[in-house]
């Protein structure tokens, strides 16, 4: 384990079992104007019994998603906007959102409504039981996918197996983009996380002890509006990310 994270995890062992004072739900957006209002409404409903904030991190969307968030913030007091003008990309957006979050716990959820917000209270409960990282998982009892073609399932399976074999991760769903963690743990590893990678979860999980990782099942829902950001270029970035993280792991074990 890395020295800096060692200090965070071992300095006060009781911190591994504590109450979440405020959950910051971070959702990166890029041209998601049709999805952002339903997302905010679903989140406020699910989290009504938990102290929380919703931080939309927008990469200066051309469809002015950021403007819709500003309008919604007038009636949703828990809603905040972080509008980014440089270093665009999903990973960097998540990192900036986590760093700007007010909560002691942070969660990342996609803005396209494919991640079910209903499991967020369970994810918080796992953090409070001692987890350092809690991942929404499609590939365990109680989880699954909706509306996928056989090709999409095959592609996801291949990407998952590559990550498991290449990085030795115990995660059943390492391709998930739905996860929660303690903010201080993120800040401890922030300088070593590469935001240019396709899957920011892989970057974070590579720096956390596997024994403190938990998974919670959920059903991955079909996208309702807008277009998927997946492309051939992103697939190449993913393969490059796996290669880089594998090399980091090899160096750490020498």
Name given to the CATH architecture? Alpha-Beta Complex
- Strand line-up across the major sheet: 3-2-1-4-7-5-8
The name CATH uses for the topology is Spore Coat Polysaccharide Biosynthesis Protein SpsA, Chain A
Chain-averaged pLDDT: 84
Shape: globular
Could you say how many structural domains there are in total?
1
Please work out how many helical segments DSSP would assign: 9
Q: Residue share in helices?
A: 40-55%
CATH superfamily: Spore Coat Polysaccharide Biosynthesis Protein SpsA, Chain A
Rg, please?
17 Å
Number of strands: 9
Order of helices and strands: HEHEHEHEHEEHEHHEEH
Strand proportion, as a percent range, falls in 15-25%
Which key terms come to mind for this protein?
single chain, 254 residues, alpha/beta, Spore Coat Polysaccharide Biosynthesis Protein SpsA, Chain A, 7-stranded mixed β-sheet, two-stranded parallel ribbon, disordered C terminus
Task: Characterise this structure.
With 254 residues, the protein is an alpha/beta fold. It has one domain: Spore Coat Polysaccharide Biosynthesis Protein SpsA, Chain A, CATH 3.90.550. It contains nine helices and nine strands. The chain has helices at residues 3-11, 33-46, 65-73, 90-100, 120-128, 150-167, 183-189, 200-205, 232-252; strands at 23-29, 52-58, 79-83, 105-108, 133-137, 144-145, 179-182, 213-217, 219-220. The protein has a seven-stranded mixed sheet, with helices on both faces. α1 runs antiparallel to α7, α2 runs parallel beside α3 and α6 packs parallel to α9 (232-252). Mean pLDDT is 84; it is low at 10-14 and 250-254.
């Amino acid at each position: 384990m890395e020295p800096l994270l060692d200090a965070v995890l071992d300095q006060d062992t009781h911190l591994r079992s504590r109450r979440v004072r405020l959950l910051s739900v971070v959702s990166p957006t890029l041209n998601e104007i049709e999805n952002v209002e339903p997302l905010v409404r679903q989140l406020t409903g699910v989290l009504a019994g938990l102290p929380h904030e919703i931080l939309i991190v927008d990469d200066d969307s051309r469809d002015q998603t950021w403007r819709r968030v500003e309008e919604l913030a007038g009636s949703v007091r828990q809603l905040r906007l972080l509008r980014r003008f440089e270093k665009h990309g999903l990973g960097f957006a998540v990192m900036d959102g986590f760093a700007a979050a007010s909560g002691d716990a942070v969660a990342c959820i996609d803005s396209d409504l494919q991640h079910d917000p209903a499991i967020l209270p369970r994810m918080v409960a796992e953090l409070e039981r001692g987890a350092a990282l809690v991942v929404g998982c499609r590939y365990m009892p109680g989880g699954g996918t909706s509306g996928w073609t056989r090709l999409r399932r095959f592609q996801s399976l291949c990407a998952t197996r590559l990550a498991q074999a290449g990085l030795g991760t115990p995660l059943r769903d390492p391709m998930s983009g739905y996860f929660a963690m303690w903010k201080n743990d993120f800040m401890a590893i922030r300088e070593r996380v590469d935001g240019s990678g396709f899957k920011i979860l892989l970057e974070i999980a590579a720096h956390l002890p596997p024994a403190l990782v938990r998974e919670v099942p959920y059903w991955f829902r079909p996208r309702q509006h807008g277009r998927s950001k997946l492309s051939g270029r992103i697939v190449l970035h993913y393969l490059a990310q796996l290669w880089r993280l594998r090399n980091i792991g090899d160096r750490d074990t020498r």
